[in-house]
Predict the 3D structure of the following.
Amino acid sequence: MTKEEKRQQEKLVADWQALMRTFIRPENDAAKATLVKYMEQILFGLQGFLKKHVGITEEISLMKLSSGFTNTLISETPEKKLADVISGIVEDVAPYAVNVASPYFVGHMTSAIPFFMVHLKTIIAALNQNVVKLETSKVFSVVEKQVLAKIHRLIYKKDDDFYYKHVQNTYTTLGCFTEGGTAANLTALWVARNTAFAPKNGFAGIENEGIQAAYQAYNVDRSVVLVSRRGHYSLRKAGGILGIGNQNIVPVDVDRDNRINLKKLLETINYFQKAGRTKILAVIGIAGATETGTIDPLRKIGEICAEKKLHFHVDAAFGGAVLVSEKFNHLLDGIETADSVTIDGHKQFYMPMTCGMVYFNDPTSLDAVEYHANYVNRLGSVDLGIKSLSGSREANSLILDSALKIMGSKGYALLIEHGIDTARQMADEIKTRPVFQLVTEPELNILTYRICPENIRLDLDRGNPDKKRRINHKLNDININVQRIQREAGNSFVSRTVLMPRNRPENEIVVLRCVIMNPMTDIKILNEILNEQEEIFKSKFQGYVP
Amino acid sequence: MTKEEKRQQEKLVADWQALMRTFIRPENDAAKATLVKYMEQILFGLQGFLKKHVGITEEISLMKLSSGFTNTLISETPEKKLADVISGIVEDVAPYAVNVASPYFVGHMTSAIPFFMVHLKTIIAALNQNVVKLETSKVFSVVEKQVLAKIHRLIYKKDDDFYYKHVQNTYTTLGCFTEGGTAANLTALWVARNTAFAPKNGFAGIENEGIQAAYQAYNVDRSVVLVSRRGHYSLRKAGGILGIGNQNIVPVDVDRDNRINLKKLLETINYFQKAGRTKILAVIGIAGATETGTIDPLRKIGEICAEKKLHFHVDAAFGGAVLVSEKFNHLLDGIETADSVTIDGHKQFYMPMTCGMVYFNDPTSLDAVEYHANYVNRLGSVDLGIKSLSGSREANSLILDSALKIMGSKGYALLIEHGIDTARQMADEIKTRPVFQLVTEPELNILTYRICPENIRLDLDRGNPDKKRRINHKLNDININVQRIQREAGNSFVSRTVLMPRNRPENEIVVLRCVIMNPMTDIKILNEILNEQEEIFKSKFQGYVP
């Protein structure tokens, strides 16, 4: 520490006056100018970082990085002024963050967001409303109910009368905002569980008495949820949390296109219903599988559920926003037959981290998870916290509402359509390159492929399982390494995952995965990314191909 | 719509170029100036609102308000430009929000936050990291581990070696950030449940197989959680979600000071342990009860739990931050004996909505809720999403870390101490006013009182239960109305709740409740609030006193 720094630090004392200044709204122009200066520093100081490379660092430098974050003592006196904290973040922290806004970052569902989202988030923070109850949010509770109705209408397309009746109805609820998709799926299954084991003669309901008593009252000893093998891991987690056991989130095989195999689904339903003593809590259709972007045949699943009288949940955390596109919303055909639907705001509605939502066809469904307290959330009040997994919660709905006004559904549609169109262009490009094999076609804006030179594909096709396994094993090694080297080079980022086509173990393959959400990502950039992968492969791994 | 407005709207088209502009970082000074102008509009446009009254509106105007938010159609084309959206929020929405930052708003745990918190939240939004995995957060995962260690150290005060070993250890976890206190309590009980029903010979564990199988494997038919009658409603909710049934969150009576009655606690534990076939998952101590601010005798509960080998959870969502105050941290004596602790960042760490945290004494406790997926959260990685209720999650830890640097623990201590000291001054003031009766002394910065004129207190003390009930019933009506009229007048806000001293039904009373968190709230303001209540009472309800 230099003398000057030391002198500066000594001036940083936690006194009452300094403290009060941080709470008082600026009264004069000088104070205002200071606050604006900080905002400039944030908006443009970070810009330098945002223009740089993608910046996912290699393992070794992560270890080095962590070594700078080991002090675990909280300083008694202030360490830094706000301006220094901000410049510290801009100079010392941001450069080691991941530039998810780069058009070369095509590995995950976290991507660039429109700049105005930052402004909207700032408004939410400045007002600091808590929508758990009307007394700390007032108009924001009303806004939330309106936004819920807007998205509900996008999904369920009910008539004017329905929405007029429910939009501001304090006794019914069209859905609720959650922390994210995990909490949304959990809420949907929570409702499904409680509805399946509702109160009846002498039994006060599963929420009240628990699973043990519920199984006795309903004469079962198992609950299951059916979803394809492409189901998100939050569903297993929900099964664990809800006490039914995550092994009872039963995976149903998929067809060649990674969609749920309807024949297998029907067989599974019949198996459980015939054997008895097992309650099927829900059947889940996926609208935008995390790994492949696949959409299950929603209308057909809906028909099966209607016939078998089962709760139909659609996990559209990723794909839900496609409903705004007239060009592609047919892909979600049948979603309106779902009893519940998960949609994430921070995915294809391009909101900042994090915002999940869950919608219900029946405006009374959420009654199954109603809680009250003496000091808030009194019966019959508008308090949104009455039927919600969350307690205190920020007013995210205003961000979505404002974004819908700024973009219009057509603006969102342009983003969605760009992603899907570009993914299809990339798929076409991959097919022309002998080094790569397209593994899953992009139904939405997600595709998977791998390095698998043309000349060995015949071997793979004709080989016996043992030979296949051997070849795939080597290819997996190659793909893991190419992905890692590209990531560590820091120019671009493609993720990887594991798939098992036709559910056969010998087909277990590591694939490279692209999610194309950033409107700045175009085929030119994607070609650069493919070129880099091809170069890495050719210069380092060509000799390893079996 | 005027001609000019119509012309303006026609210009708002969702075209590709307009869209791209919202994603591109500003390259020239004009573009930069525009973005800063918007931020100014947010920071100072909202100021007018923030200086105004508290603004919790009466029921009738809420209905009128909702009637303006009934349009449920999403516009195809953009409705407004960002600037208009912001001015719309400033002019048409913010005035109907609740001014939780007013020093006259002393009704809830949602209060003013330091101005820099807004800047910090803006940084988080601008970088839009997702801490579910290293690949979308890098340095922020490292920062989060460091902050977790800092707060863990504040609670558990372990030695340097311990923190050196765990601060950046990718195999252990000192705690995790959650959406809020509800999710933190849920996480703690989830861990307690899974630890109580861990895998054993042939049984794969409750998370995997579910409650029914767990009860069979452990030869029980009930699980309970013990907490005083002052427990937060999120605990019942957690019991419902986790499948043990919310009626099995067993309320233990409190003593005269609203602390858990230790004798009753011991009796309850012995009852369940003796009868057998019931598993006690956890005993909960409250550090800052929501309604009264009371702190349970944590050290003694800890001793009981150690002796009886029970998981000890402390719900310090509200009171946890008091640990930074050397003057008052003795109130939390014994918290370090807890197996798990909930603390909210958006309460007495003055963070924006919302930030919860849960800490564990044992860095391997969270292993009980571990989940992996192929494309993220692979075994042994730094990915924070592996042991967490949440999936995608914003990087809130940087806000807390920065705030600790700007304020120092002493700065936070000043805030905490001001709240407690001021609450005690208010209690003294209430005692001097014959119209009011202090119901609960402020152990922390929360107190409850009611309108109960001195001259009828003797009647209440000497009356039989029937008479007491009659008198209290009338007083309750009066207090409900005085609180409502004050709230609707919009100058200040005190909340109300229901207490039942000595657990006797005839003692069920409506009380007024103050939470003093805003450093600008002083005894002068509190006197004004009491004066207003007294005036309302005297002018409208004095004749109704029995």
Observations:
- The mean pLDDT of chain B is 92.
- The radius of gyration of chain B is 26 Å.
